[in-house]
Amino acid sequence: MTVAATAIARTKRIFKLTLALLGLGFNSSKCKTAAKMAVARIKLLRNKREVVVR
């Protein structure tokens, strides 16, 4: 790894730890909403494929 890549990795790790300590890292309500939307999109894609195959 280059020096720059190592520095970037270290900075990202420190940033994640800081967010975790402050309690800003995870929002369960946003996660739940995003999961529901993803499931809906997957269902739509499956339905589109079925229509095309027929």
Description:
This is IST1-like protein-like. With 54 residues, this protein is an all-alpha fold. It has one domain (3-53). Helix content is 85%, strand content 0%. It is elongated. The model has no long low-confidence stretch (mean pLDDT 86).
Summarize the structure.
InterPro entries: IST1-like (IPR042277). This protein has 54 residues and is mainly α.
Features:
single chain, 54 residues, mainly alpha, 2 helices, 85% helix, 0% strand, elongated
Rg over CA atoms, rounded to whole Å, is 20 Å
Tally of distinct domains: 1
Write down how many β-strands occur, each being a DSSP E stretch of 2 or more residues: 0
Order of helices and strands: HH
Number of helices: 2
Report on the biggest sheet: none
Shape: elongated
**Overall pLDDT level:** 86
Q: What structural category characterises the helix and strand content?
A: mainly alpha
- Helix percent reads over 70%
Spell out the blueprint of helices and strands.
Layout lengths: L2 H20 L5 H26 L1
Organism: Trifolium medium
Protein name: IST1-like protein-like
